[in-house]
Amino acid sequence: MKLSQCAAVAVLSLAVVFICRSQERYDVSEQYTKHEYSIPMRDGITLFTSVYAPVDTTRSYPILMTRTPYSVAPYGPGDYKSSLGPSDTAMKEGYIFVYQDVRGRMMSQGEFVDIRPQHPSKATAADADDVTDTYDTIDWLVKRLPHNNGRVGLYGISYPGYYAAVGLIEAHPALKAVSPQAPIDDWFIGDDFHHNGALFLLDAFNFMSGFGQHRPEPTQGYARGYVHTNPDPYRFFLGVGPVANINRNIFKNTIRFWNDMAEHGAYDHFWKERNVSSRMKNVRPAVMTVGGLFDAEDFYGPLHIYGAIERNNPQATNTLVVGPWFHGGWFRSPGEELGNIGFGSRTSEYYRDSIEAVFFRYHLKGGDAPSLPEALVFQTGSNVWKRYAEWPPASVQRKKLYFHEKGGMSFMPPEIAEGFDEYVSDPNRPVPYTNEIHVNRNREFMTEDQRFAFYRPDVVSYETRVLDEDLTLTGPVTVNLNVSTTGTDADFVVKVIDVLPDDAKPSVAQSSYSPMGGYQFPVRMDVMRGKFRNSFEKPEPFTPNAVTQVRFTLNDINHCFRAGHRIMVQVQSSWFPLVDRNPQTFVDIYHASDADFRKATHRIHRTAAAPSFIEAGIAQ
After folding, report:
1. How many whole angstroms separate alpha carbon 205 and alpha carbon 591?
2. Which domain holds residue 318?
3. If residue 485 lies in a helix (H) or strand (E), which one and from where to where?
4. How far apart are alpha carbons 430 and 582 in whole angstroms?
5. Alpha-carbon gap, residue 562 to 382, rounded angstroms
6. DSSP string, 73-128
7. Is 109 among the domain residues?
């Protein structure tokens, strides 16, 4: 008989909802003994820590720890989690599982700071930060927990993934294996709250309205987030008006991090000192960084943290694993499908049992060495796991797909002297990010049919002819647009889309969307705030009607466009309310007024002198 047990922590992006997994006749309280400790840090504050140790004490066990801002609940030595660790496999193998409320959150003492800047010097006890808290916790655990073997592993997803990554900095000697999973790297350029300087409004608002509230004293409860007055977020945020109205009328300056974001509208010291990958030096533990191809929140982080470790620590054991997953999907789903797109196998179960469990077993218990390549990346379209000696793979050939007249696209550059496509972008009628209604951002939008946008007059599309043979795009995708606008600022949202043939059949058995013929499956989408096109530090306006290059990079893909399919690129200038509206006048958008929002006509140029294209690696 199968018992389905559920435990959830309600958080959105950074937030990881740790939904428990089904287990067969497994009672955590029978197999583990729970203890709670207040572990002192070097500056005197204590961090609340729950420890689950195997009942069997005839042997020693490694410690497997996660540090979280989302609670180690349930609290109380007699109240047990319904599942432990990163997987059922790890739980049943036996580890000493440790859960810790980070500084200033839930039951731990101290002041919480979002993505706390790390002290460059640890000269005094007052220089305590997330690096020292990790070190001090590990030191206390290995010296005081009975039956531990002196080896520690660290893991976490999303915000806990950030804490796992930070644990690599000046790591404790006992820390042998670390798995940052969907870790945050940079909250202005690529993760969660901003992408290329554009505010991810829906996620930031929903998350920070609860998580961002001040916690004056240790507590076991959560602050409640804002309850929308309209279940349709598109209409709700249009009604709110400019972003400045959120603080003025809703938050009323009570959310400290929201205030900080509003006062740091460009990539200044506030954001730079929170960048994680720049600190990935002298890495000693083995690392396995995990990301999801359809993670709407933190796919930038895994790619850049992995890349920084690789560049700065050539001798480190450094592995990248990327699957066809939404945010944390490898932990809390079978990984067989997302929305209407199927992946042909239970990819998450394969990862948990054959990759993650083997990684920790080897480095913490001395099991068989994992046969992991440098990068293990799932290839969508063909739906197979691919092994690479480096990422991005060096064997790919970079090629450009150029935009042409009448919505065409090919590898041949344009030869015409004049040519453009134009559309009117109206901030009062922005392009929606989804065709559905969800108060919280739906994760399935990452694979949602884009025909709802294709039919809008403020979206331009380019597509290839039907492919005669399979074509695989691998690695980062560079966008090169030559644009002009009647305004002085603009956003550009670019989507790389696999257009299925007209006779395509559903790939998901219980799909509620049966007419898959012509389905426009997005394999990569992102936004660039135009004023940051040359510098995130120093925004600059567009000169009205002047042809201007806008160049940026989309996160990596690994997708096989099958024979009979088409490759499409869509370009638009709003993505609401996922992304806040650009007024299309050069202003500080966090403090813009209603009068700043104006219609503008944008042109995408596609000439020999000013071509527009995407560039990606073509697998050989």
Report:
1. 16
2. 28-185+276-388
3. strand 471-485
4. 10
5. 8
6. PSPSTT---SS-SS-HHHHHH--EEEEEEPTTSTT--S---TTPPPPS---SGGG-
7. yes
**pLDDT tens-digit series, residues 144-170:** 999 999 999 999 999 999 999 999 999
Q: How far is CA 282 from CA 303, 308, 335, in A?
A: 19, 11, 34
Number of domains making up the chain: 2
The answer to whether residue 242 sits within a structural domain is: no
Query: Alpha-carbon distance 459 to 422, whole Å?
Result: 9
Please report whether residue 431 resides in a domain. Answer: yes
pLDDT tens-digit readout, 325-383: 999 999 999 999 999 999 999 999 999 999 999 999 999 999 788 888 999 999 999 99
Q: How far is CA 41 from the centre of its chain?
A: 30
pLDDT over 80 (residue 198): yes
* Residue 139 and residue 41 share a domain: yes
Query: Are both 563 and 583 inside the same structural domain?
Result: yes
Spacing of C-alpha 146 from chain mean position: 37
Separation between Cα atoms, residue 216 and residue 22, nearest integer Å: 37
Question: Residue 478 and residue 617: Cα distance in Å, rounded?
Answer: 10
Global pTM reads 0.93
Of 388, 409, 431, the residue at which a domain comes to its end is: 388
131 sits in which H/E element: helix 130-144
CATH number of the domain enclosing 407? 2.60.120.260
Give the domain-ending residue among 363, 388, 413: 388
CA geometry: angle 272, 124, 185, nearest 5 deg: 25
> Whose CA is closest to 508, among 347, 348, 341?
341
Is residue 355 domain-shared with residue 409, that is, in the same domain?
no
**For residues 297 and 191, is the Cβ–Cβ distance under 8 A?**
yes
1 lies in a domain?
no
